[in-house]
Amino acid sequence: MKFGYFDDAAREYVITTPRTPYPWLNYLGNEDFFGLISHTAGGYCYCKDARFRRLTRYRYNNVPWDDGGRYFYIQDGDCVWSPGWKPVRTELDQYRCRHGLSYTIIQGVKNGLEAEALFFVPLGTWAEVHRLTLTNRSQAPRTFRVFSLVEWCLWNAHDDLNNLQRNFSTGEVEIDGSTVYHKTEYRERRDHYAFYGVNAPLVGFDTDRDAFLGAYNGFDRPAAVVEGKPRNSEAHGWSPIASHCVEVRLEPGEARSLVFVLGYVENPQEQKWERPGVINKAGARDLLARFATPAAVDAALQDLRSFWDRLLSHYVLESGDGKLNRMVNVWNQYQCMVTFNLSRSASYFETGIGRGFGFRDSNQDLIGFVHQVPARARQRILDLAATQFADGSAYHQYQPLTKRGNSDIGGNFNDDPLWLIFSTTAYIKETGDFTILDAPVPFDNDERSAQPLFEHLKRSFYHTVNNLGPHGLPLIGRADWNDCLNLNCFSNDPNESFQTTGNRAGRTAESLMIAGQFVLYGREFVALCARIGKGDEARAAQEHVDRMVRAVLEHGWDGAWFLRAYDFFGRKVGSKENEEGQIFIESQGFCAMAGIGLEEGRVVTALDSVRERLDCEFGVMLNQPAFTRYLIEYGEISSYPQGYKENAAVFCHNNPWIMIGETVLGRGERAFEYYRKIAPAYLEEMSDLHRLEPYVYAQMVAGRDAYRPGEAKNSWLTGTAAWNYYAITQFILGIKPGYDGLDINPCIPPAWEGFRVTRIFRGATYHIEVRNPRHVSKGIKRVSMDGKVLSGGAIPISDPGTEHRVMVELG
Ligand code: BGC
């Protein structure tokens, strides 16, 4: 069952009923200022940091769902309604929500009155613009009142919902013309404020929530709205809000737009005040003036559309499969951009107060957006590397506002350092910018310790070399990619966190996932060293890589698949000898991608075991059999009920590792089948089971052992986005940036006739046509560029601004 449809030409997902199985989200903003907006206008916004600079309040996991947002109420005689259905939930005659690229348009029609609300954050602007267009579709003149509503968050989103004994006394506002200013704590250490204004005169306003709603009322029945009478309340403490009341009169057929601006301003310390006690409003006035007319709003929206045209022009696919085209060309890239901007901080599953930016997460995300915004990717790499320690290990997370490592969680996730090699080499291949390797970067943000970035990569590599266990395999530390496989944790106490508890500092537990990762990214390190003339470095590193390959072959093979780990006691994890958790996806994925034992047939055997034991209708499950009881020596993974999260769900993030592994074997049919099983556009028809947005990936889909297999959770902020984009574009469609050009090596279902890709790479445009006349999966018969046959599959680097025709024949 579907709840909407893809409008491919407009690059929108159109939701046709407000009763989706879960609030379906979109994001506004691309630089510093971000908004989360659901299909009923729920959500919130913040500047730079979802925890420390939250503008509007949002209560997670509330009842009814998703209450709180930027709301419009229309009071039309006895009828009160909202264009997005919520919060009033008056039945609408028509409802549409268009989630587009960084904007959302919600339209409601009731009794011949149409209200269309456009929400977006203009480029380079610290504000959300809300344009509400009202059209009289009836035969008679209409006079009605429009009320707006946002509830202010007292800045620190964590404190806001906790420290009520203080907060209920701190709230302060100012009202000036048609603008409400939120200035809580401005009198003391803050030099920033928020505002919500409209380009129309007001009948009245409200800034005190309780006065507006009336005691014991919810957002659905504010007393001021029901009575059509704003209270002109001034908040002192309690819960400040901003609500405007505007009266509108429309002749039949007439339309009128109101433009609301919800913004954020920082003032220099010495210019905080206009006069004693009155904030300096110049910044806000400037923003309000910029968007005072509907034409200015149109122009800003047009700029945003052009911005997305440019971002999405770097890789454009034309295949015979509409679902694939929309994933590759629009939605997957869009999600990658959002994960770049937010990492794992704020979604409808991440509250914006917990995890900041993850070291492994953000390094992996980079492969999904580096082609879109290379300059920003460069900065991200440098920020991440600055949270590394001198021994090569890294803080697991950092706070975006301060860019400092988060010491509550600390480090010792032993996969973390290697992801820096992955991201940096991907960046250089995309851009050709080797200078990044010379950029001075501190350790633990201590400027005195700065070393060239290359040194950070070297320490990442040697962090693994210096932390090997009894079998010569990498020590796992707190955990590897799977944060929930906690082999040194031994937690008995429900009050402690699996993530930060390290009850036994063992040097026994080893990870085969990190082993595969080390071989894969270790080779990248070797190739990089060779490429920049560090031959000795390359040779030394190669020896460590070769040694690791031998260790995996000797101690990491279980007969038909790769082991997952050795535990604290040196016992096998992910072996046929175990009762549960006999096989895991991560080590199969990484050892296959690294091609360990390829010649000996181990990769094929391991991936056939994956097929036999881990594959299900909804994708490849993380492990099998699922754990049915808590194992103290395994930790969090066994804490989940069977089929959920890391205990045997389809953890979508690592499915692409198997897809890429299949392409190493040349099995395009299977690679693409795995792709299709989890790509959201292919799941649209079963949205009632899946429950989450059909335009973005979710982290997890319940596995075969779950109560409701196929049900998804945790959409939007997941490494799934970048990894799937990487798998489909670089390995299945097979167009891969290299240091010296574009490597072409597709691995597709044999039935495909071919496909076309337009790729902008280092400033030149390549129109690539892949033909598959012999219906093979993989193998290049001939590549030519501009009529000249090339040797091998690599397209050389061309001058920026030039355009080229590339013909690829498989066979
Ligand atoms: C985390 C990742 C982790 C994955 C598997 C995600 O929630 O963001 O860092 O690798 O779970 O445990």
Structure description:
- With 811 residues, the protein is of the alpha+beta class.
- 27% of the residues lie in helices and 27% in strands.
- The strands form twelve sheets. A ten-stranded antiparallel sheet has the order 1-2-9-10-11-12-19-16-15-14, with helices on one face.
- The longest helix has 21 residues, at 322-342.
- The two termini are 40 Å apart.
- 55% of the residues are buried.
- The chain binds beta-D-glucopyranose.
- Residues 344, 358, 360-361, 481-484, 646 line the site of beta-D-glucopyranose (BGC).
Summarize the structure.
The chain has 811 residues and is of the alpha+beta class.
Topology:
Blueprint (H helix, E strand, L loop, with lengths): L3 E4 L4 E4 L9 E4 L4 E6 L4 E5 L6 E3 L14 E6 L2 E3 L12 E6 L3 E8 L2 E8 L6 E10 L5 E14 L1 H4 L3 H4 L5 E4 L2 E4 L9 E7 L5 E5 H5 L9 H4 L13 E11 L4 E12 L6 E3 L2 E2 L2 H9 L3 H18 L3 E4 L3 H21 L14 E2 H11 L4 H12 L11 E3 L4 E2 L10 H16 L8 E4 L2 E7 H13 L44 E2 H20 L3 H21 L9 E2 L5 E2 L9 E2 H9 L8 H12 L1 E2 L2 E2 L2 E2 L25 E2 L3 H11 L2 H11 L1 H4 L3 H4 L7 E4 L10 E4 L4 H13 L2 E4 L2 E4 L9 E8 L2 E8 L8 E6 L2 E3 L3 E3 L6 E8 L1
Parallel strand pairs: 41-45
Antiparallel strand pairs: 1-2, 2-9, 3-4, 4-5, 6-13, 7-8, 7-13, 9-10, 10-11, 11-12, 12-19, 13-18, 14-15, 15-16, 16-19, 17-18, 20-21, 22-40, 23-24, 24-25, 26-27, 28-29, 29-30, 31-34, 32-33, 35-36, 36-37, 38-39, 39-44, 40-41, 42-43, 42-45
The site of beta-D-glucopyranose (BGC) has 9 residues, from helix 8.
